[in-house]
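Hello,

I think I submitted the magnesium ion job twice by accident. Can you confirm which output corresponds to this input? Input:
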Amino acid sequence: MIEIKNVGISFGGLRALDDVSFSVGKNEVVGLIGPNGAGKTTMMNIICGLYQPSDGSIHFEGTQITGMTSDKICKLGVSRTYQIPQPFYAMTALASVVTSVLNGKKRTNMSLGDAGLEASYYLEFVGLFSKRDELASNLNLYELRMLELARALATTPKLLLLDEAMAGLNPVESERALEMIWSAQEQFGITILWIEHVMKIIMKAAQRIVVLQYGKKIAEGPPEQIVKDPHIIEAYLGGKH
Ligand SMILES: Nc1ncnc2c1ncn2[C@@H]1O[C@H](COP(=O)(O)OP(=O)(O)OP(=O)(O)O)[C@@H](O)[C@H]1O
Ligand SMILES: [Mg+2]
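Support: Only one job matched these inputs. Its output is below.
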């Protein structure tokens, strides 16, 4: 579904990503892990068109998307959530999701009423329908993460990029969020590229894991192989653990 080839980017003197290649197949859940500052979010920012890479290319369903604007990439079927939720704080939950419904469409001749109905469906799906008239500023972190998910799903993505969907959630909330993501995958047939620090979750959720460190890909494989890899244990814990 998406093929990332030899991608590189620098910020000043810092090589945030260097010669990174991997792909995600249709219906796969791929985990993207690595220590803080490894370049995970930067990769996501490049995929969705916020940053332009200095090297390499990205193809989504055979179309080169490098150089395209974010809204065009979104309309092709790529959506994301943010590590720190980015709601429109002054809008109600429903209005936020309506914005996504309208932005995800190639044609925007949908009436506001119809967009509201569609948005309500996504809010209901993530369990936030009763909060539809709340301002995002009144939602707790779990609810904000669910609103992020509803907004991403409302653009009807084929590929969903999740940036630390579990960060800050307690173990019970994390399990609930994982169930939600699984049912989204089942219901909407989406493919997922998932950045996650919570190992217990990503090892359970992903069929394949890509590991970044200092902007380079240092490993790729099934979770059971990754957890046993001494290089990865060292990258995470440092020294000889
Ligand atoms: N816009 C930017 N300008 C300058 N430096 C940046 C920018 N974005 C990212 N970086 C730097 O690039 C490196 C990779 O950052 P990135 O946010 O991709 O890491 P990450 O793997 O997502 O880390 P974390 O797990 O902490 O979220 C870091 O050193 C970061 O400071
Ligand atoms: Mg990050």
